[in-house]
Amino acid sequence: MADDATFTKTELLAKLRDVEKQLYSRRVEKQVEPLPLEERQKFVASRLHLTAVIAKVNASLMRDIREDLEGQSASLRQGIADLDGSLRSLTSAKQWASAVNGVIGLLGRVVGLL
User: Fold this and answer.
1) What is the residue range of 109's domain?
2) Rounded distance, CA 43 to CA 36, Å?
3) Is this model's pTM higher than 0.85 or not?
4) ∠ CA(65), CA(67), CA(68), 5° rounding?
5) What distances in angstroms separate CA 62 from CA 38, 50, 58, 59, one per listed residue?
């Protein structure tokens, strides 16, 4: 995490999914069961709203990744072609490893998870 005050979309999504998982847990369900109907309905509506927000954050993250991949498409295409050529010729394990690392490096810059 960059600092205590900011989240990346990936970090935000992970935190929200953790909260969502807890809200759907049996432990929380048991605490909600005895509540009056109106309060249970409010809880369920809020939980569903959180699920919708998570879906929007996820869609935004996927859009960002798609745009970044599109921006790197020429480099990725060349890297994959180099890797494919190395695999077909199998002339040098060093070339093959270098090509694999190049493609992984490009993807890592885009996705930030590798």
Assistant:
1) 72-114
2) 11
3) no
4) 65
5) 36, 18, 6, 5
